Amino acid sequence: MQEMTMIQAINNALRNALESDPGVLIFGEDVGHNGGVFRATDGLQQQFGEERVFDTPLAESGIVGTAIGMAVNGLKPIAEIQFMGFIYSAFEQIISHAARIRTRSQGSYTVPMVIRAPYGAGIRAPELHSDSSEAFFVHQPGLKVVVPSNPYDAKGLLLAAIEDPDPVLFLEPMKLYRAFKEPVPTEKYTVPLGKAKVMKEGTDISIFSWGAMLPAVRQAVQKAEQEMHIQAQIIDLRTLSPLDEETIIASVQKTGRAVVVHEAPKTAGVGSEIIAIINDKALFHLEAPVARIAGYDVPPPLFQLEDLYIPDADTIRAGIERTMKY
Amino acid sequence: MSKVLARKPAGPVFNLVDADGTADPQLLPPLTERQYIEMYRWMKISREFDRRAVMMQRKGQLGTYPSLEGQEAAQIGSAFALRKEDMMFPTYRENGAAMVHGLPIRQILHYWNGRADHFVKPEGVNVFPVAVPIATQVLHAVGYAMADKFKRQNRATLVYFGDGATSKGDFHEGMNFAGVFRVPVVLFCQNNQYAISVPYHRQTASETIAEKADAYGVESIRVDGNDVLAVYQATKNAVYKAYLGEGPTLIEAVTYRYNSHTTADDHTRYRSSTEVEKWRTGRDPILRFRRFLERQGLWNENQENLLAHEIQTLLDEEIKQMKQCGPSNPLHMFEYSYQDLPLKVEEQRNEFIARRKGGGIECRK
């Protein structure tokens, strides 16, 4: 065990993966000599050489497309897209190919690759660096989408993603990269994909969230519990595709009330899908409509206004209150 | 390299002024003394603006900032070759070029200060707003110029990008369209040797960027990007060619970024100080042009001091005005996603206003 930030835990996971599987390769823009703009790959090229950890030309479609070729040819590529906002030029490779080759070839070819991308607002980055566009990818069958919210999960989920036989988009909340430390085992372990985590037990309301929103959710819950004398259950979904429907439904069946919190724009966000699942499978357990606390339906603004765009603890608390008092 | 299929050697680099300021008077562009001095003035303003911006970022007054220092000749020389009515598509690093083409300094400061609401194009300023994805603007510029051709508008469009951008599909697609449709566009690459940490030789196996044009049937020129007059002349020729309906040109300006990619990057991790110093002391574009002006008898120490003072005063005032502007209006976040606000966004806006009442944030309309 070692105290690690999320970025250190990711670095440690990548090191474990490179050590244990000679077919693992890491590549992308600035991941080699520079060790990644956030230092996620720091020291890995020095340790494992330029054949296994290397800088590519500046070309996201090229990075993802060649990763697909490597994956179908038996390697385990881990491609880094420097910021999720730059993933769009690789969109076709992800949507039309990474996610479909298994179906297209009826299982003759598979694409066991991971695409890592920092994402989300809150670090005063320039335009487009702050997008939370997970919903674009969750909509695509054949692709898994994972978002950790703490160092322990980041490492375990990333190692599980690398072992996974399908393509996984691994989204890393930038705001949490260095937000706090926690004990993380230095040896290899996995946290299963597709399984949500109950972060806190409760009986009166379920709060569903992921990634960078969880610290704000915890603050909001603490306040709401004191003010309203309630017990809220906090669920970190961790994998957005496939969603852990069992945990979502079980929680709503227990509490009868729910709030979904995400940073991405509200319309057609993953929150809408969670509410649809609840409507399908737990409607008669509901005591109130499910509240959605989300970003506005506008592009994330430049940094002067970005904190006003991101849902904060007060907004979440107000959502909890509205749902409790319905 | 295979001896059977040998590669064509790279062409020469176009150069007019040597490092010591000497030049062949027969080859100089037909500029007035005043124009020479104006060019120099803008190079100095760009550098001083850039240094101030980096300092302001360090103090938290600006967000992440991409420095242009070292690239003044490439930016000013090329922008100077445009007429006011010609269109410019800059990247986030072309602060100097954008200023020359009419974008007010204060607006550039506001943008890096994280407020989009003051980055509105003034009437008659043909500078397109910067976007951060790489190479995407090449296609926009080609399309813009195609529209000019369609509308029989006799003007040129100039698009900037870096060496890293030439790795992206959009660059190649833009070049191809430009070639096929003989588009009145100037594709201006500032080859500053690094795409963040990745050096030129890792970006492409081509010896030059200029030679990439051959594959698309586009003419190209490789120019000394630290020689402002060579950059000016090469761009002027390309712009005239565009006016005459003779199609696109790719210009590769060979230059160097002195500082990190942005203030969030640390260039000492990937290159030596010796390399940086070699460019700074041996090939500095401003120093070279000053030596040229002095040799021509157009410049002296006294003028230099007066200019330094003028720039100081100018930037002090611009920065003061930027600071006095106060925080951004939060409601601007909702204003420009659509022309007519959809009902759901209007509701979100109203909720935002209601929630912020008494919250201490002034919502100025």
Automatic annotation (TrEMBL), chain A:
Domain of life: Bacteria
Enzyme class: oxidoreductase
One Pfam family matching this protein: Transketolase_C
Name of this chain's protein: Alpha-ketoacid dehydrogenase subunit beta
GO MF: oxidoreductase activity
Residue span, Transketolase-like pyrimidine-binding domain: 4-179
Cofactor needs: thiamine diphosphate
UniProt keyword list: Oxidoreductase, Thiamine pyrophosphate
The enzyme's E.C. designation: 1.2.4.-
UniProt cross-references to InterPro entries, sorted A to Z: THDP-binding, Transketo_C/PFOR_II, Transketolase-like_Pyr-bd, Transketolase_C
PANTHER family: PYRUVATE DEHYDROGENASE E1 COMPONENT BETA SUBUNIT (PTHR43257), PYRUVATE DEHYDROGENASE E1 COMPONENT SUBUNIT BETA (PTHR43257:SF2)
Organism: Ferviditalea candida
UniProtKB/TrEMBL annotation, chain B:
Required co-factors: thiamine diphosphate
Catalytic activity field: N(6)-[(R)-lipoyl]-L-lysyl-[protein] + pyruvate + H(+) = N(6)-[(R)-S(8)-acetyldihydrolipoyl]-L-lysyl-[protein] + CO2
UniProt cross-references to PANTHER family, sorted A to Z: 2-OXOISOVALERATE DEHYDROGENASE SUBUNIT ALPHA, MITOCHONDRIAL
NCBIfam families: PDH_E1_alph_x
Gene: pdhA
Organism encoding this protein: Ferviditalea candida
CDD domains tied to this protein: TPP_E1_PDC_ADC_BCADC
Keywords tagged on the record: Oxidoreductase, Pyruvate, Thiamine pyrophosphate
Dehydrogenase E1 component domain residues: 41-328
Keyword field contains Heme: no
EC number(s) stated in the UniProt entry for this protein: 1.2.4.1
Function: The pyruvate dehydrogenase complex catalyzes the overall conversion of pyruvate to acetyl-CoA and CO(2). It contains multiple copies of three enzymatic components: pyruvate dehydrogenase (E1), dihydrolipoamide acetyltransferase (E2) and lipoamide dehydrogenase (E3).
Protein name per Swiss-Prot or TrEMBL: Pyruvate dehydrogenase E1 component subunit alpha
InterPro entries in the cross-refs: Alpha-ketoacid_DH_E1_comp (IPR050771), DH_E1 (IPR001017), PdhA/BkdA (IPR017596), THDP-binding (IPR029061)
